Amino acid sequence: MRFLSTRGGVEPTPLRDAILAGLAPDGGLFVPQALPVVAGETLHGGESLPEVAQRVLQPFVDGSPLEPALAAICAHAYACDAPLVPLEGEDADVLELFHGPTAAFKDFGARFLAASIGVLRAGDTAPLTVLVATSGDTGSAVGAAFHRMPGVRVAILYPDGRVSPRQAHQLGCFGGNVRAFRVAGSFDDCQRMVKASFADVALRADVPLTSANSISLGRLLPQTAYYAHAALAHPGPLSFIVPTGNLGNAFAAILARALGAPIGDVVLAGNANRVLPDFFAGDAYAPRPSVATLANAMDVGDPSNFERLRWLYPDEPALRAAFRAGSVGDDEIRRAIRDGEARHGRTFDPHTACAAVVLERLRASGDRGHWALVATAHPAKFETVVEPLVGRAVPVPAALAAMLARPATAEPLAAEAGALGTVLRDW
Ligand SMILES: *Cc1c(COP(=O)(O)O)cnc(C)c1O
After folding, report:
1. Are 308 and 6 in contact (CB under 8 A)?
2. What is the pTM assigned to this prediction?
3. Which mutation among 246, 251, 378 tests ligand 1's pocket best, with the greatest number of atoms within 8 A of CB?
4. How far is 215 from 41, CA to CA, in rounded Å?
């Protein structure tokens, strides 16, 4: 399997190069040259998550150095479960993706990417720098996945003051080969700085860089596996409501369906950043500065994976007709968290709460289907939002508690690509 760019400007590229490059050289995002079909004989229920992952990902690693290592990579990346549990009081399930080391879905993709880079770099001597912009959860998942990995260092950029105290602590708790930078700006500034560094040919000659953002193929592809696994465990096609920011997780659900997994509808649940809801309601696609919300990992004003959605649905009317997207304000997020305990006996984190509100709206419009809400993070990561609403402390998962018990430090950084370049050169 080879990979092309969403912008059409690169030759068919082997998986190894596509993963290590992050962004395609023409500025686009890597996508598979052809969509393999993994349905039918190859996919069946009753298999474990690592087994389903192997079947789904096999065609993509075919002929690459990852092929002989795929079973081991999957055993590592999917060591934590992604259970589908019934939502009390509703004809719905919750797909819990928060049982990994940093209690958010990004652990799956980050661990797959780290294990893949470990295999791909075997024998390389020059250090590789993983550059990652985060609105909260990516940075800790990537930091945890690469922590203490020989020959690799990680620079995490996050918007100062715009992540929860526990998120900030997680980002700064690694030390060693992982450095956290608190940027005086927004997430979009962080993402711009990372993009500018990738575009800086001179910098890249001095400092070999790779990406771990959701644009990275090595994070996107593995996210298809838990959707396929959950859908196979359900009788009949399973529809998902996915909390959405950069559109990486939701696009993985859509890609899993395109590969033949028994997935029904995929509905996007966003916060007050309305770019996607407005587009699917009929407006032109109009990126804009992000606004800060309670669901901060989705504070994105220009979702990067939208390019991949356009690649999969080149016809714009067909694209608009294929998806629905809801925008959920902070007041509704608060209400859904408050109601979650009484109505469903569960505590939602602010992102999953957006999906819960979108389900309520579907019901209000007469929908009677069965849905899976995708729970993207554990509520204990967002204690300052959640605990006052539910009136009690939210128990902290053991892995998260261990990170919070370590000391944490972050370095201040101006919101300029030049400042980042200096730091990277002087490392
Ligand atoms: C990253 C994140 C999201 C958004 O995922 P995208 O792939 O960027 O759409 C949603 N919820 C949580 C908790 C996240 O960490």
Report:
1. yes
2. 0.95
3. 246
4. 30
Q: DSSP labels for 23-77? A: S-TTS--EEESS-----GGG--TT--HHHHHHHHHHHHHTTSTTGGGHHHHHHHH
Q: Which residues contact 150 (CB under 8 A, 6 or more apart)?
A: none
Which of 148, 74, 66, 137 is closest to 106 using CA atoms?
A: 137
CA 219 and chain centroid, separation: 7
H/E stretch holding 266 reads strand 263-270
Is the beta carbon of 106 within 6 A of some atom in ligand 1? yes
- How far does residue 106's CA lie from ligand 1's centre (Å)? 8
Ligand 1, atom 1, lies closest to the CA of: 297
Helices (DSSP H) in 327-416: which residue ranges? 330-344, 350-364, 383-390, 398-404
Question: Is any ligand 1 atom within 6 A of the Cβ of residue 223?
Answer: no
pLDDT in tens, 270-323: 999 999 999 999 999 999 988 989 999 998 898 989 999 999 999 999 999 999
Exposure on the CB side of residue 408, measured as CA atoms within 13 A = 19
- In tens, the pLDDT along 171-180 reads 999 999 999 9
Is the shortest distance between the CB of 219 and ligand 1 below 6 Å? no
